[in-house]
Amino acid sequence: MSIQFFTVNSTTNIKVIPPGRNFYFISLFALILFHGFAVSVSAQNSSVNDEKSLKANIQKTTSSSKSINKNCKCDCPGAQTSEHKNLYIEKILVEGSGSKSSSLIKRTISIKEGTWIRPDDPSIEQSRLKLFALGFFDSVDFYFRKGSSRGKVILVINTRKRGTLLLKHIFMGSSRIIPFWLGLSVEEKNFLNMGITLGGSVLATTKADIMNGRSQYGAEAYAFFPSFLGIPLFLGTRFNYGSEFYRIYGSPDNGDPENFLSMPYIRGGYKLETFFPLNSFWFRVSFKNDHYITNLPSETIRHFEDGTSKKINFGIEDGNSVIGSINLKLIHDTTDRPFLPTRGHFFSMGVKFGAPVYFGAYSFTRGELNYKQYFSYEKHIFSLHFMAGAIAGNVPLFEKYYIGDIQDLVAPRALEMNMSVAPTPNFLGTNITETRWGTTAFKFCVRYDYPFMGNWGIIYRGNVFIGAGILGLATVSQLKYRESDLWSSIPIDLTFDFGIHLDTRYGMFKLSISNAIGRLPF
C-alpha cells in the first residue's frame, strides 16, 4: 500500500461531427481487416477507458434537458414566434475566451454559414453538446443577433475556455512490498488548436522487497484524432516491465512480504478505438492486443495454515502469449456537465471478446454494466453508483477484476501494475480476503456532494463529498465449492470515502481519506 499524496483524474471527452452511417460500417470493416494483419504487439490506455478515464467518454451539458427555444436567445423578428419561421445563418461569430479556437468550433458544430435553420432545430443543441464534449470549454452559450435584413441572423457562440494541458495522474507512494514509486501522466487536449489530443505517462518503482522481486517500469503514449479519414480515431500504446505478486504462505489477511513471491513479466502492445452515434446513444468499438513475455516461477504451491496445499493457477501462459480482444460498448449520458455533475445519468453496457481470431491465445467473454444517477436539491447533490461484471471462458489474469479497482481502501493499479499485496479490510468477516483477482464483481455506492467553492482563480469549482457502499469480488470456485456457511462464503465487503474534489484548470484533483488509508505502508 502507499501514501499517494494526491491523485489527479481527468477524462477525455470528445465528440465530432458524425459522417454517414454507411461510411462508419465501411470504416469498421477496414479496421477489422487491419487488425487481422497487424503485428501482435499491443497496449491499452486505461485512463481513456474509464468511466475514470481515454478515459472518448461522452458527456452532456447543463442545458441538455431544456428546450432549444429556452436556451437560444434571439432578438431577430419572428425567431420566437409560434410559426417557427426559418432563419438564414448569415454569419457565425465566436466570442469569449475560446475565440482563438473559432476555426475548430466552426468545424465541430453541425450548423454552417449560408444555411437555413429553425429556432427549435435539434442541430443547435447537438452542436452545443459537441463543443462541451471536446473538453475545452467550461461554458458554451448560443444566441442570435439581427442580420443585415429581415430573416437573416448572426449565430453567436459565447465560450469560456478551460485549460487543455492537464495533469491526469501523479503517482507517488510507498507500501510494505514496494518502498517507493513515482510517476506522472499528462495530456494536451487541443494540440496546436487542432482538437487533437496527445497524452503520455511514465512510472518507476524501487525494487520489490520480496523473493525474486525487482523494480517495475511503465510507459504509455496515445493520440486522439477527431477526424481521421472521416472518423474519430484513438491510437494508444503501452509498455510494462512489471511483476505480479502471489501468496505461498500465511493467512489471506496477512500482508507480510515474506509470504509472497514475484512473477516477472514484460508487456507491450497497442489499442485502436472509434465511436459513432446510434440515435441518443453512442457506440464505441475498440481493438486491443497485448503481448506478454512471462517467466513463471518454479514455486507453484500455495501452503495453508491447516497443513493443506494446492497448486497455484497463475492465469497466464509461460513464455510468450498474446491477449487479443474486441470491445463493444453502448453509452447513454444525460449528465449536465463533464466534471462534478449535479443531475442526469450515465449508463454504459459493454462486452469484450477474446479469441484466437484476434491473434490471442485466450478465448473469453467479459460483460460489464455501469450506471450513475445524479440528483440535486438546492446546493445539495446526491448520486448513486452501480457497477457489475462477469467473465467466462479461459480468461487471462490481467483481464480479471482486481480488488484495488473496486475497493476505495486498497491501492489501485498504476498503469495496470500492482504496487501492493494488501487485501480488502473485510469489515463483514467474509472470505473476500481470499480473492485478489476475480471473475465476478459488483459495487454499489451512495454519495453526497456539497459545493463549497465556485469559480476562483485556477479552480472552476470544488465539492466536499462523502460516500459509502458495498462491493463483491469472487471466482467461480469460491461460489461453487464452499466450506463454511453461506453468509461467510459470500465474498463481500464495505467501502467508504470522503474528502474534497476540485475541478481545476489543470485537471481533477481528489484529496480523500481513501488516498491515505489505501496507501499507508502497514
Note the gap between the termini.
7 Å
Q: Roughly what percent helix?
A: 10-25%
Q: What is the general shape?
A: elongated
Give the biggest sheet.
Answer: 16 strands, antiparallel
The largest beta-sheet arranges its strands as: 1-25-24-23-22-19-18-17-16-13-12-11-10-9-8-7
- Any idea what the radius of gyration is? 25 Å
Count of separate DSSP helical elements: 8
Average pLDDT works out at 79
The portion of residues forming beta strands comes to over 45%
Judged by helices, strands and strand pairing, the structural class is: mainly beta
Poorly predicted runs of 5 or more residues = 1-84
* Number of β-strand runs: 25
What does this structure look like?
The protein is mainly beta and 522 residues long. Helix content is 11%, strand content 46%. It contains eight helices and 25 strands. The strands form four sheets. The chain has a 16-stranded antiparallel beta sheet. It has a five-stranded mixed beta sheet with strand order 2-5-6-3-4. A two-stranded antiparallel sheet has the order 14-15. Strand 5 (137-146) and strand 6 form a beta hairpin. The longest helix has 17 residues, at 21-37. It is elongated and about 90 Å long. The model is unreliable at 1-84 (pLDDT under 50).
